[in-house]
Amino acid sequence: MSEQEPAGGGVDEPGRGGAGDGAGPAAPDDGTAGAERGRAGDAADGAARVRRRYPGISSRAYEHPADRPALVSLRKLTGFETVFKVLSGMIPERSLRLLFLSDSVRVDENQFVQLHHMLVDACEILDLERVPPFYVTQDPRPNAMCIGLDQPIIVVTTGLVQLLDEEEMRAVIGHEVGHALSGHAVYRTILLFLTSMAVRVAWIPLGNIAIMAIVSALREWFRKSELSADRAGLLVGQDLDASLRGLMKLAGGNNLHHMNVDAFLKQAEEYEAGGDVRDSVLKILTVLPRTHPFAAVRAAELNRWAKTRDYQRLCHGHYPRRDEDPQSRVTDSVKESAAHYAGAVRTSKDPLMRLVTDVASGAGEFGGKLRDFARGAGRPRPGDARTGDARTGDARTGGGTDGGTEDGDDRRDEGRSDGDRPGGAGEGRGSGS
């Protein structure tokens, strides 16, 4: 590990803008942007760049408000702890390591040297003491993962290495280091194992239902954890444009000269706000089988977080420390999550969320009217609702449509109206609300 900066300060990179300004400048969009740009022109510059460090940073500093409560809910799921303990002993972690060691390329000082330097730098930035083993595996599909039970392993595919430039890849490596720091690798490994098992026992109805219940809960949590790791990637790369470009490339491939980040973010806004309630239901159904949120949604979430005061404070050294984690309470995270969701629902443009807000608002207004009526505020005053003849003997003889019921009401109302009239015994007191 290299020498760390004081917790309150950190180091801004010279010449290219550090994390303190929210994001570095975008790389030139000249049509040749892609994998070759990072591997050729920026190699020396990337090595010389000094980034802000976050000594002792806790994963709570960048975790999405829904991440930890979702994990707590997962652990409360009936049977999860039993399955977790059994699978921890069943999953062949040693054979998993041997598989990558024998059939992938290990990233170190001699192979994929540039990726190795990025990993070491990412671990220094987030103050991760033990650098995880890192492998590149042959697969044309762009992907990266952090798995393992005792010790996390980071794996990226050749498709991802060829797709991203240096700064974009740095954000991805920071993303995976964030998973490792948050302890996500264990649950990710179990999710992969259970997903494979669910396919094998699909012919057993009850067995498949039981496993898929846990798999669905794991996927729901993991989608939230991806938003947390995206934030960690931004803390490591310290270039918002690069993080957004990387997500855009995952959606549209290595065609950067045909794409635009601002337009991509507008897509996310249209996705979140467009359509009607039927579209909102379809969004929920389409995301259920996925382990990752959609790329455009991730980009929009990250872009919003980068504009918050919390992110700016974090960049200036104000963040929770790891040594404070034992004192942190889950209830605080749940409260923070509840506040986050309440604000998200209020400001959401999604048709279903707007419907929920309108229904809740209407129910609250209706409940307020009922409360006022029960307290008497909604009852008309005798002088307003009836003419002076209503207090005469005609009204008390049953001349009203309700007969005896109105007779009793008139006597009670008359008794109250004496106090409401100027000069009465109850002068100065209203009808109450």
What does this protein structure show overall?
With 433 residues, the protein is mostly helical. It has a domain at 35-279 and 292-347. 59% of the residues lie in helices and 3% in strands. A hairpin with a 5-residue loop joins strand 3 and strand 4. The N and C termini lie far apart (67 Å).
Task: Tell me the layout of helices and strands.
Elements: H1 35-40, H2 43-48, H3 67-75, H4 80-90, H5 93-103, E1 105-106, H6 113-125, E2 134-137, E3 144-147, E4 153-157, H7 158-163, H8 166-182, H9 185-200, H10 205-237, H11 240-252, H12 261-273, H13 277-287, H14 295-306, H15 309-315, H16 330-347, H17 351-375, H18 382-385, H19 393-399, H20 404-420
Helix pairs in contact: 3-10, 6-8, 8-10, 8-11, 9-10, 10-14, 11-14, 12-14, 13-17, 19-20
Oligomer: single chain
From the N-terminal CA to the C-terminal CA, the straight-line distance is 67 Å
| Low-pLDDT residue spans | 1-44, 385-406, 414-433
* Content-based structural category: mainly alpha
Strand content: under 5%
Coarse shape = globular
Strand arrangement in the largest pleated sheet: 1-2-4-3
Count, helices? 20
H-E order: HHHHHEHEEEHHHHHHHHHHHHHH
Average pLDDT confidence is: 73
Protein name: M48 family metallopeptidase
Domain Peptidase M48: 116-305
Biased composition (Basic and acidic residues): 320-337, 381-394, 409-421
Region (Disordered): 1-47, 317-337, 366-433
Keywords:
single chain; 433 residues; mainly alpha; four-stranded mixed beta sheet; 20 helices; 4 strands; 59% helix; globular; disordered N terminus; disordered C terminus
